[in-house]
Amino acid sequence: MKKNVFRAWLIVCWLGCVSALPPAAGAAGIPPAPKSQQGYGNDAFRNITVSKTDARQYVVKGEARVFEGNVRYVVTDGATTLINSFVTASRGGLAWGSYELNLNLPGSKQPLTLILFEEIAQTGARRHELKIPLP
Question: CA–CA separation, 133 vs 60, rounded Å?
Answer without folding.
Answer: 12
